[in-house]
Design brief:
24 strands, 22% helix, 592 residues, four-stranded mixed beta sheet, Alkaline Phosphatase, subunit A, Ubiquitin-like (UB roll), alpha/beta, 2 domains, eight-stranded mixed beta sheet
C-alpha cells in the first residue's frame, strides 16, 4: 500500500509540472515525456492570423474560412494546417496597392496556418488622369504605321520583349501565338512597263506586283496624301465606294512622280518601310512605352486640314490649305484647344523651331505665329498681341524644362524649315533625312525625361497623316465633326463631278499613323487597339482639365486613359534609350 501510494504521489507531481508548463507557456503546447525522460512539444491546435490595413485610403479584408473582417486591424485563430484565403476590397476612391508580410502581390493572399502569421494590406487613394500636370504633343510629318513600325514584332523577338498583338506588316508576325499571324509581304499593282514616261502610269493585267520592301535610303521623294490621292489609295477603281481595296499607292506615287519630274517614276517608294536598324530610337521607345495599332489621322486629306483637326477637331469643310481656291479663302472660325484653355485659365504654350527661318533673327510673336498652324484660325491671329508669351521658340522650351515652368498643355510644331520633320522630300535638291528628324525628336524627349517635369508629364508623339505611304489597314468610319461637307474641292476632283459616296464626306478617318505615348505613367510595353484618331489628344486634354468638347469628332473619341497606369507608374525612373543612328545613306536617284 505504501509503495502504491508513493507512485500515486509521484504521478500527481509529474502531472502538476506538465500543467504548470501548459499554463505558463500556452504557445508551446502540451509537454510529453520522451523515452529518455526529456520533455518534447506537442503541436498547437490553433494559430493566430493578424491583418493590418495601411496606406492613404480605406478598404476591407475578409477571409475564407470566415474569421477575418477587419478595418483597420483584426486577428483570428485558425486550426493548425488551415489554408486561409484573404481578399482585399478597396473602399470608394481607393486602390489596393498590395500585400506585405506573409503575402506579396495584388491577387488574393493565401496562407497555410503552420505558425502565427501577420499580413498588411495597403490601400492608397485611386490616382486618375489628374496626376498629369503637363501634356505635351508633337506631330511630325507624313508617315504610316507600316512604313515606320511595321517590323515591331520581329524587333521584340530579337530584343527580349514579350510578344504583343500588334498589327504591323504581316511578314514580321510570328507563325504561332497571338494574332495576327504571319502573312506574305503585301503588294500593290505597279505600272505596266509598256507605258513608260511621259505616259501616265498604266495599271492593267500586265502590271507587276510591287511587294513591300526595306528601304536603304533614309531619304525618299514625297508621296502625296491630298484628297484625290487619298481616295485613289482607298480604291483605285472605285474611290467613292465603301470598299477599301488599298490598291492605289503605287499608282498615285508614280502618277505624281511623272508629273513632278521625280526619279521614281514607277512609284515603288510607296511600298518601302524602315526597320529597327534605321529607326532604333523609335523602335525602342514604342517597345518600352505605349503605342497603338489603330491610331489614325482624322481625315483622308493632306497636312493642313489634319493639323486643323489636331488643334480644333475640325477643318470646317476644308480639304485643301487656306487660299488654294475660292472655296477656302477665309480663316477658320472654329474654337481651338488653346482658346478653350485660355478661357478656363489653364496654362498653354506653342513652341516652334526657328532654324532656317526669318524668325531665327526676329523671334517676335508675330513672326513665330507664321511657323504655327494655329495661324489658320481667326483666334490664332490674336496671339501675338493678346497672348504674346504663349508662342515661343524651342530655346524657351529648354528653359521652361530647366526652370520647371512648363505649361499645362504644350504643342511642339515640326521643324519643317530645318528639314527635321521626317516629311518626304519635296525637291530632289533638298532631301529630307528621316534619321535626322528622329534624332531631333529624341533630343526633345530625352530633355523632358531628364527634367523635373518628367514626374507628372505625358509626351505624345504622332504624325499628322500617313503621307500616302503604304499601310495595310483601311481608314475607319468616324463622326462628322460639324456636318460640313467639303467646300473647296476643285473641278475634276473626286466627289466633285456630280457623284458621291461614303468617302466623299468627313465621315471616315484618314490612314494609320504612328503613335508613342511617353510618360512615367505610360503602360509598359503596351499596345492599344481602340480605334482613335489624333483628336483623341484633345479628348485627353479635355478630360484632364474638365473642358467641353470642341466638336462632335473629339466628343466621340475615347480619352486615352487606357494608355496609362496612374496607380503604379512604371517609369518614374525613365529608361535609357539608345542614341538615334544618323549614319544611314541618303539619296533620291535610286531605290531601295
Amino acid at each position: 500500500m505504501k509503495r502504491h501510494r508513493f507512485l500515486f504521489v509521484v504521478s500527481m507531481l509529474a502531472l502538476a509540472v506538465v500543467l504548470n508548463n501548459v499554463l505558463n507557456n500556452p504557445g508551446r503546447g502540451l509537454l510529453a515525456q520522451s523515452a529518455s525522460g526529456a520533455a518534447s512539444a506537442i503541436p498547437a491546435t490553433t494559430y493566430e492570423l493578424t491583418v493590418t490595413l495601411a496606406g492613404t485610403s480605406t478598404g476591407t479584408v475578409t477571409s475564407s474560412p470566415t474569421g477575418i473582417t477587419c478595418s483597420p486591424t483584426c486577428s483570428a485563430s485558425f486550426n493548425a494546417g488551415t489554408a486561409v484565403t484573404l481578399t482585399a476590397t478597396p473602399g470608394k476612391g481607393a486602390f489596393f496597392t498590395g500585400w506585405s508580410g506573409a503575402c506579396t502581390g495584388r491577387s488574393t493572399c493565401k496562407v497555410v496556418m503552420k505558425a502565427a502569421k501577420s499580413v498588411t494590406a495597403t490601400f492608397n487613394v485611386n490616382q486618375t488622369v489628374n496626376v498629369l500636370n503637363h501634356i505635351i504633343f508633337m506631330a511630325q510629318e507624313n508617315r504610316s504605321v507600316d512604313n515606320y513600325l511595321g517590323e515591331l514584332r520581329s524587333y521584340w523577338k530579337s530584343n527580349g520583349f514579350a510578344d504583343r498583338s500588334f498589327d504591323g506588316l504581316p511578314q514580321f508576325n510570328p507563325t504561332t501565338g497571338l494574332a495576327p499571324l504571319y502573312g506574305p509581304p503585301p503588294t500593290n499593282p505597279g505600272c505596266d512597263p509598256a507605258y513608260p514616261p511621259p505616259d501616265d502610269c498604266t495599271e492593267d493585267s500586265a502590271s507587276p506586283n510591287i511587294a513591300s520592301y526595306q528601304l536603304t535610303t533614309q531619304c525618299t521623294e514625297n508621296t502625296s496624301p491630298s484628297w484625290n490621292e487619298s481616295h485613289e489609295n482607298w480604291n483605285l477603281d472605285a474611290p467613292m465606294s465603301g470598299t477599301a481595296d488599298l490598291n492605289g499607292y503605287v499608282w498615285t506615287a508614280a502618277h505624281d512622280a511623272r508629273n513632278l519630274g521625280y526619279y521614281d517614276t514607277n512609284g515603288i517608294r510607296a511600298m518601302g518601310y524602315y526597320e529597327s536598324s534605321n529607326l532604333n530610337y523609335y523602335y525602342y521607345m514604342a517597345s518600352e512605352f505605349a503605342t497603338s495599332d489603330r491610331w489614325f489621322s482624322p481625315a483622308m486629306v493632306r497636312t493642313e486640314p489634319n493639323r486643323e483637326y489636331l488643334i480644333a477637331a475640325t477643318s470646317q469643310g476644308y480639304a485643301y490649305p487656306i487660299g488654294t481656291d475660292s472655296g477656302d479663302e477665309n480663316l477658320l472660325t472654329a474654337t481651338t484647344i488653346f482658346q478653350e484653355l485660355q478661357t478656363a485659365g489653364i496654362s498653354w504654350k506653342i513652341y516652334v523651331n526657328t532654324d532656317n527661318t526669318a524668325c531665327a533673327s526676329n523671334a517676335t510673336p508675330a513672326c513665330l505665329l507664321t511657323l504655327s498652324y494655329v495661324q489658320n484660325f481667326s483666334w490664332g491671329q490674336t496671339i501675338p498681341t493678346g497672348y504674346p508669351d504663349n508662342i515661343a521658340t524651342m530655346t524657351q522650351f529648354t528653359t521652361d524644362l530647366q526652370n520647371g515652368t512648363l505649361p499645362s498643355v504644350a504643342q511642339i510644331e515640326p521643324a519643317s524649315a530645318a528639314g527635321l520633320d521626317e516629311h518626304g522630300s519635296d525637291s530632289d535638291e533638298y532631301p529630307v533625312d528621316v534619321q535626322l528628324g528622329a534624332s531631333y525628336v529624341s533630343s526633345i524627349v530625352n530633355a523632358l525625361m531628364a527634367s523635373t517635369s518628367w514626374k507628372d508629364s505625358a509626351f505624345i508623339l504622332t504624325y499628322d497623316e500617313s503621307g500616302a505611304l503604304y499601310d495595310h489597314v483601311a481608314p475607319q468610319t468616324a463622326v462628322s465633326p460639324d456636318g460640313i461637307a467639303p467646300v473647296d474641292l476643285m473641278p475634276g476632283d473626286i466627289c466633285n463631278n456630280g457623284t458621291t459616296g461614303p468617302t466623299c464626306n468627313f465621315v471616315y478617318t484618314g490612314y494609320r499613323v504612328p503613335l508613342i505615348v511617353i510618360s512615367p505613367y505610360a503602360n509598359e510595353h503596351y499596345v492599344d487597339h481602340n480605334v482613335l484618331d489624333t483628336t483623341a489628344i484633345l479628348k485627353l486634354i479635355e478630360t484632364r482639365f474638365k473642358l467641353s468638347s470642341l466638336t462632335k469628332r473629339d466628343a466621340a473619341q475615347k480619352n486615352m486613359t487606357s494608355f496609362f497606369n496612374f496607380n503604379e507608374p512604371p517609369w518614374m525612373t525613365p529608361p535609357t534609350p539608345p542614341t538615334q543612328t544618323t549614319s544611314g545613306a541618303c539619296y533620291l536617284n535610286t531605290l531601295p
